[in-house]
Amino acid sequence: YNWARLFRVDMLTVLFGFAGIYVVHKHHNDKKLYFSILLFILTLFTKQSNIVAPLAAITFLFIKNWKKAILYSTIFGIAGLSSLLLINLLTDGNFIKHILVYHFVSFKVSLLIKNLLYLFSRHLVTIGLSTFFIIKQYRKQGKFFTLLNIYFFYSFAFVFLSGRIGVSHNIFLDLILISTVLTGLQINNLINHDTKKIVSYSFNVILIIQLLIFFHIPYISKEIFRTPNYKEKESSTNVFNYIKKAKGKVFCYDMS
After folding, report:
1. CB neighbours (10 Å) of residue 159?
2. Nearest Cα residue to 132 out of 56, 62, 199, 34
3. Counting beta carbons within 10 angstroms of the beta carbon of residue 24, is it exposed (0 to 12), middle (13 to 18) or buried (19 or more)?
4. pTM of the entire predicted model
5. What is the pLDDT of residues 176-185, one digit of tens each?
6. How many whole angstroms separate alpha carbon 173 and alpha carbon 9?
7. Which terminus of the chain is less hemmed in, N or C, by CB atoms within 10 Å?
8. SS3 letters for the chain?
9. How far apart are CA 112 and CA 172, in angstroms?
10. In Å, what is the CA distance from 93 to each residue of 46, 47, 76, 96, 101?
């Protein structure tokens, strides 16, 4: 994990997106469904590239009831486009220029491979368990295109955009979130159903492996993982040495 993603917009946009997914999951058969439109608009205006949750919800609705999906998409489109045009008008055209026009960047396969290796070296267990849950759910209940599954599919596909120049590991947050949720549902299945001991033991071992991958050791050597603590210590030491050697007063901004 990297501390940088904690003070960016990504955590907030994922929160709005998953809240919208929850509303669609609970209320796709009643009028409360349309409250999710507000949440998805907040998702897109928090981070414009995060289309995963709205896209998953609309796809799910088209599978369940295409007439309702068309109405939902129309309201969503009108509300979203009206908000976009209003904000663009208030900013003298700079909103669309900076958010859309300036975001056309190059794509590097080498960067994509590097980011995918980063993702799967840390989250392969939960992604694998999520895939296992989806397959098992389909074999036992015949359910495949559920809302959560669709959200997982789109989130997984979205990580292949991580080869774009300037994209950080924050692009993985949707997949990490839904993988954790599906893993939790798989754990719930094991608890509530008679399961062979070998399966339960194997599952526990796999979760322990994931825990060890996430295990945080403050100030660990940078040759292994550059933890937030290590980087903070390294940066603070550099700043301290710089200030110590400086002659006279030191003007600094937003630093202790």
Report:
1. 22
2. 199
3. buried
4. 0.81
5. 999 999 999 9
6. 12
7. C
8. CCHHHHHCCHHHHHHHHHHHHHHHHHHCCCHHHHHHHHHHHHHHHHCCCCCHHHHHHHHHHHHHCHHHHHHHHHHHHHHHHHHHHHHHHHCCCHHHHHHCHHHCCCECHHHHHHHHHHHHHHHHHHHHHHHHHHHHHHHHHCCCCCHHHHHHHHHHHHHHHCCECCCCHHHHHHHHHHHHHHHHHHHHHHHHCCCCHHHHHHHHHHHHHHHHHHCCCCCCCCCCCCCHHHHHHHHHHHHHHHHHHCCCCCCCCCCC
9. 12
10. 18, 18, 22, 6, 11
Q: How far is CA 233 from CA 196, 228, 251, in A?
A: 48, 9, 21
Q: Residue holding tokens 């991580």? A: 162
Closest CA to 127 of 172, 184, 179, 169: 179
Bridge partners of 164, per DSSP, are 107
Residue given tokens 């901004």 in the structure block: 253
pLDDT tens, residue by residue, 103-117: 777 888 998 999 898
Look at the chain and count its residues.
256
